[in-house]
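In the lab's daily routine, each protein ends up as an entry in a very long ledger. A line of letters takes care of the sequence, but it says nothing directly about the fold. The fold becomes a row of whole numbers, each drawn from a learned catalogue of backbone shapes. The protein below has been through that process, and both of its lines are reproduced in full:
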Amino acid sequence: MNTDSELLNPEWRSPCPIASGLDILGDKWSLIIVRDLIEHSSRTYSEFASSPEGISTNILASRLKQLESLSIIERVNPDKPSRNNAFQLTQRGKALRPVLEELGKWSQIHLKEIHPTIVTII
């Protein structure tokens, strides 16, 4: 379990910008959360939990807390508890849109042969 200090001050593997980005977003779930917020503008904890990828509740809570602490997402209403609140992307989070679009395009082009059911969005 990450402490608040680890969330705000992650352990960086190196000064490389790609490695640093992956230190924050390279886990299995963070970009799925960002993807959902790009597609839906805002999502509640329950909506994230019902995503077809099947994120577990403890991982979801941890990722939301981490992304919020890094100002990638924010609560729509900061005074409401997390479970009853929606999250949205900050400007920092919205800046990830072209990254995800390019990753999606790459996946559609280069993974189609080994993942024939991949969805086409181009």
Q: What stands out?
A: The mean pLDDT is 88. The chain has one domain: 4-93. The chain is about 50% helix and 10% strand.
